[in-house]
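Hey Z.,

So I finally got round to the phosphoenolpyruvate thing we talked about over coffee. Here's the setup:
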Amino acid sequence: MATAKDHLMTATKYVYRFSEGNAGMRDLLGGKGANLCEMVGLGLPVPPGFVISTDTCREYYRLGRELPDGLMKSVRSEMAVVEGAVGRRFGDPAAPLLVSVRSGSKFSMPGMMDTILNLGLTADTVRGFAEATGDRRFALDSYRRFLQLFGKVALYLDTEPFEEILKAAKESAGVASDAELDERALEDVVERFERYARSGPHAFPDDPWEQLELAIRAVFDSWNNARATAYREYQGISHDLGTAVSIMAMVFGNSGWDSGTGVCFTRNPASGTRELYGEFLANAQGEDVVSGVRTPRPISELATEMPAAHTELVRHGQNLENHFRDVQDIEFTIEHGKLYILQTRSAKRTAMAAVKTAVDMTDEGLISKEEAILRVPASDLMQLLVPLFDEEAKQRAVEEGRLLGRGLNASPGAATGQAVFDSETAVERGAEVILVRPETSPDDMPGMLRAAAVLTSRGGITSHAAVVTRGLGKPAVVGCSDLYVDLSRKLMAVNGTTIHEGEDISIDGFTGEVFAGRIETIAPDISRNDALIRLLEWADGIRRLAIRANADTPNDAAQARGFGAHGIGLCRTEHMFFQPERLPSVRRMLMSAGHVARLEQKIEDARVELQQAGGVSAEIEKDIREAQDALEGDAESLAYREALAHLEEYQTADFSGILRTMDGLPVVIRLLDAPLHEFLPPLESLIDEFATARASGAPAEELAEKEHLLEEARSLRESNPMLGHRGSRLGLTYPAIYEMQVRAILAATNGLKAEGLDPRPEIMMPLIMGKAELVALQTRLRTVATAMGHTLGKPGIHFGTMIELPRAALLAGELADHADFFSFGSNDLTQMTFGFSRDDAEEKFLRFYLERGLLPQNPFATLDEAGVGRLIRIAVEEGRAANPRLELGLCGEHGGDPQSIVFCESAGLDYVSCSPLRVPVARLAAAAAALGEREKDV
Ligand code: PEP
Ligand code: MG
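And the result:
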């Protein structure tokens, strides 16, 4: 009677003949196996074979690395079918069948797992193989290849001794390559290889069936080798999938000059051009192409060398591409003029090729516009928008040992130039320099504006250096922890190499790599990339989210508009305050702001007192008069007003420029946010300056000025500036600043309207924590707006708030009553929700968290849906419930991250706002996100 176990065993199917599978069975047969089956179904010339399923691999691990019962029995019966098809028997000493045993999981993991070729050759069968092929040298060559590969993969032998033996043989024969070794020399190599293979801890099996079993185990084991595990971790592929094993009759590209092997792509994977692209080697096996022993030749030469095989290859390539509706990467072998296809898969390609092939294939009617959008990973578009290193030049730099270290790839693009270590030198020397700092601060702005790129040893991807450079579209590598920057000696040291000021370095903002010396860059030009322009137009027709840009200058605004931004979602006004010609006025204003605020407070307090005294008190009235006189006439108040007026002039021109560039589109202007002390020179340098001035007997007036600045800087210093006197707190305590900004916005608006333009400013409050704050600001600013001839709030000038604090998100319902729009400041919202400093966390501990799996991804790069996302959803729901006309956007760095855009789509936001360079990325990502949501609805 059959037991339950027997039943289970008979029910389990481990092995699938190529004719039994198809391309839809990738989960079970792996990508390679499933495609081999599909090709057989299409009638393509694939050598006969079968696939052991990924289920079997999982079972192998479940059983503690034991092959399941019945597997080898099934393998033997499938081998019999292959024997029948080829007309040779496995292990037959007279004319043996040889097979390849290849790994292949659901997702392509190129080169990570193991494969064994020429299996079936033993000391016995190699003689028969030589006779059957009539080529003893070829048989010995195949055998030595088998011994080395099997020894390494299945017996875990060190490959070094194999290499040594081969090297010694070439030396004594006086030849340069393996291919030149004659029969005698190979005989000797084989003998020594055998001896070495038998000397290891694992017995070398003479029986080909035992070899086959060990090879299957070895391929299963290679699923968990260190390379494959690391690759899966990097790519986010599950460790539980397991690999399939394809077993296929060998065909021999090394059986003469009418044979060969190669790899080809149905379109050029670098440019996307429609041409058969690739290379081949005559009289060779696959590993010769990879190992670089001989230089492969372009596939076009196959047309003259083996025209019939070439014609077949073109035909099959075309069929495969049409069938899979994607560019194929094909491995082939030609044996005595007959072509065999050994593998096909979707080709990996550059962003340029991805865009071109997606658009071309849509034109050719092969795929739909929707598919074209989903074919191009949105983040890859960055490759098309910024300068890149010439890949060959970069490779040479690596080979020359010029790669110094790695940091975080904070802002994409490649840059090469002299290293400079302070902002002033960057300004002096101009655009061809890379500004290197331990970290950057607003003081470095002039240098950052001028330099080609920025490199820092500290900071994360939302640090000052990262945010500013992304906004400017300049490459940056930040948080390069191996980098030591010595500002006083003007040098940097990385892993033993020292670079002095003026010496060249290069940084790759795509990868975070830092190099010594120059590397050539290539400039992009998207206006000539018709395919990209068309793809983005299709995306615009599909996406629901609007795309705005974070831009602080007319130039940025123009670039953003050129890239298709539908307005500005965040204009950070503090960046305007950092320009060198304005800083003196900003400092003057700050130095006196406390004085003015105190006088205003005094007047207000006295008025309350007067009221309490019944409206009459000569003494109080005198106090009020004195304070008013001071406010109107004392030197400090005058200087304050003068500085404010000066800034107002600048700001009016700034806003006018941006609003003109964005004519007819919304421009959200956020009032000043940065902590005030950021505008003052560092305290230490003020102390030094004051001491030096005093020691050198500087005039009293100058000394007083310096002392005042020092006192002011001391009083503005905070231990926790990110949680301190910034954002709306600033607007409430120093109201004149926000009032000045609103006047400037509205003056610019009035000026443009008078010209007949259509400026659409929107005014946004930063770092709001609750309704009382918002209402207080709104009340004050409404008065200013009225005086300028406007109403604040819809249908007048839209008034809204950022949501950057968890409290604001949780109280969104009551804020929405007083706001026309919310904009989620996901940088601060992430910082405040996690309690992670956005300036320090990445460098200090976030990498550790990511490596240990304590966090799935960097929450400053990809929005944390579980926590931050939940707050956003609450704010969306409660905000809209209170104010159905509330407009909702997101303007943190996540606005340009495709995965976060998927979240924004699902949360029902109206727009995302990102740096100008990321606008095309966001357009494409938003369309892909909309397609994903549509799919969910089906
Ligand atoms: C934010 O906090 O997400 C934001 C956009 O403001 P900033 O980065 O200027 O603090
Ligand atoms: Mg913020």
